[in-house]
Specification:
Number of helices: 2
Shape: elongated
Radius of gyration: 18 Å
Number of strands: 2
Order of helices and strands: EEHH
Structural class: alpha+beta
Distance between the termini: 5 Å
Length: 113
Amino acid sequence: MTTNLPIKLHHLPNSLPIDGAVRIELVERVPIFRASNMVQERITTLINKQKESALTSEEEKELNEYQELSDYLSLVNRTMRNVLLNPLHGTVIHYDDPFEPAVPPEDWEVLQW
């Protein structure tokens, strides 16, 4: 599968807190983005309610938006892991200008899974 980047999120859940929604953990020296405990609890609440009875249309929309965010974080995490564990051509290129790409666009590789 080929992924064209950047992938854009269409919506964020209204209940998503502005602060503390995502935490970063180091796994094998690679930063991994995860939903915070507060966000995970909200998702669990919605899933449990969905098992017991039908969600309202707003709750269904919220759960779908959390799923979209989860998919996006998974893509970011896979990309980070691939880049950090498999640097291009075994070298790391450093530039002083943060707006100058480290690798010319014509040399960019398309991510494949």
